[in-house]
Amino acid sequence: MGKFRKQFVSGIIAANPVFMLGLGLCPVLAVSVAIDYGIGMSGAVMFVLMASNIVISFIRKFVPSISRIPIFIVIIATFVTITTLVFEAWIPALHEALGLFLPLIVVNCIILGRAEAFASKNPVASTIADTLGATVGFALALVTICFFRELFGTGSLSLFGVHLFTLPVLGEDPILLFILPPGAFLVIGLLLALLRWRGVAQSE
Amino acid sequence: MNELIVIFVSMAFVNNVVFARYLGLCPYFGVSKKTGPALGMGMAVIFVMLIAAAATWLINHYILIPFNVQFMQIVIFILVISSLVQITELFIKRTSATLYNALGIFLALITTNCAVLFVTLWNALHNYTFIESIVSALGAGIGFALALILMSGIRERLEIADCPRSMRGLPIAFIAAMMLSLALIGLGGMI
Question: What ipTM was reported for this prediction?
Answer without folding.
Answer: 0.79
